[in-house]
Write a structure and sequence with these properties.
Layout: E1 4-9, H1 14-20, E2 29-34, H2 38-48, E3 53-57, H3 58-66, E4 72-75, E5 88-90, E6 106-109, H4 115-126, E7 136-141, E8 160-168, H5 169-174, E9 180-182, E10 196-197, H6 202-213, E11 220-225, H7 226-231, H8 235-255, H9 267-278, H10 291-303
Parallel strand pairs: 1-2, 1-3, 6-7, 6-9, 7-8
Antiparallel strand pairs: 3-11, 4-11, 5-9, 5-10
Length: 327
């Protein structure tokens, strides 16, 4: 059988590199890799479906699925994961000293439907008991004005969200017009110390959150245009297996003590520490090993009006990659 050619837009990750560069092959598929900034990838795929397979915001995808938009279908492949207590920013001379102080504050974010912000708001609501309606929310671009929501929202009653299309969050925070901001991408003034993290020692707090909840936040998924899956239903599992193999090679490479595969010291020790915390596969794909994270996110997204109904994890992914197989 002649291989089908598919375009793939994906950020530059070590754990996907071997697939993107052709060192790992998805059986029957010839991939043409496009390496673009993730915000551009999301915008162009959501708006115009410019390629066949795409990295995609988990929140945007879940929002579309909750509105019965089946034009794209995700694989349970998660190229980006990150804890997000590190993504709360304040002024060093401001009044906020801990996340508990966000109650009653003015807080900016780049999009209400940004995946990172959903997890952070879920932490505020579920771990700290802060009603999200007690906060005045402002939506604006991080360092440049003009950013807007990309999916339709169904905000809870009483929640206040005000767009600021002519301002940036960086400038609003520096000017004292907001007290804090939540953002996956840091504000420019973090570099010179005019803006700082609200939780400077975030790693300990994030590890404690994981040990308590089992939630390792998923930021991005890999999605296909529905036409691709309908024409080639075998492509989903073949792509999933290839992404798994690329990740396995990445972890093995970074665990190698005979050579430096990244320009960092003690990388093998760090991988061992991650395995001690997360298990043998520190970055798992699939539904079963991620059910706690998927369930928590879908709960947060529905409560916050990003998802229009409460989804189950199985509704997100095609049956081809849910059944699995044994040899």
């Amino acid at each position: 059988m002649e291989a089908i050619r598919l375009t793939l837009a994906l950020g530059d990750y070590d754990h996907t590199r071997d697939l993107a560069h052709g060192l790992v092959k998805a059986e029957g598929i010839d991939l043409v890799h496009l390496n673009l900034p993730v915000e551009e990838i999301f915008f162009r795929f959501i708006k115009f479906r410019e390629w066949d397979v795409s990295e995609m915001s988990f929140a945007k995808y879940a929002a579309l699925r909750s509105q019965d938009d089946g034009s794209i279908v995700a694989l349970p492949v998660f190229p980006s994961r990150a804890f997000r207590l590190s993504s709360i920013y304040v002024r060093p001379d401001g009044k906020l000293r801990s996340p508990a102080d966000l109650r009653g504050a003015r807080v900016g974010l780049p999009e209400w439907a940004q995946t990172a912000a959903i997890y952070t708001r879920g932490y505020l609501a579920h771990e700290l008991g802060i009603p999200l309606a007690s906060i005045d929310w402002i939506q604006a671009g991080v360092n440049d004005p003009g950013r807007a929501e990309k999916v339709a929202l169904m905000l809870p009653e009483g929640l206040r969200l005000q767009p600021a299309p002519t301002r940036s969050l960086n400038d609003l925070l520096l000017g004292g017009e907001i007290d804090a901001m939540l953002s996956a991408r840091p504000p420019a003034a973090l570099a010179d110390g005019r803006i700082v993290r609200l939780v400077p020692e975030y790693r300990g707090a994030e590890e404690a959150y994981y040990r308590k909840t089992g939630v390792f936040p998923i930021m991005h998924v890999v999605a296909l245009r529905r036409e691709v899956l309908d024409a080639y239903p075998w492509a989903a599992m073949n792509l999933f297996k290839a992404f798994e193999e690329a990740k396995r090679r990445s972890v093995a490479r970074l665990s190698d003590i005979t050579a430096s595969h990244a320009p960092l010291a003690w990388m093998d020790d760090y991988v061992a520490r991650m395995r001690a915390l997360f298990g043998d596969d520190p970055f798992p794909y699939g539904i079963a090993p991620n059910r706690r994270t998927l369930d928590a996110f879908l709960q947060f997204a529905h409560e916050q009006g990003v998802c229009h109904r409460r989804l189950a994890p199985e509704e997100l992914f095609p049956p081809q990659v849910q059944a699995g197989y044994r040899v």
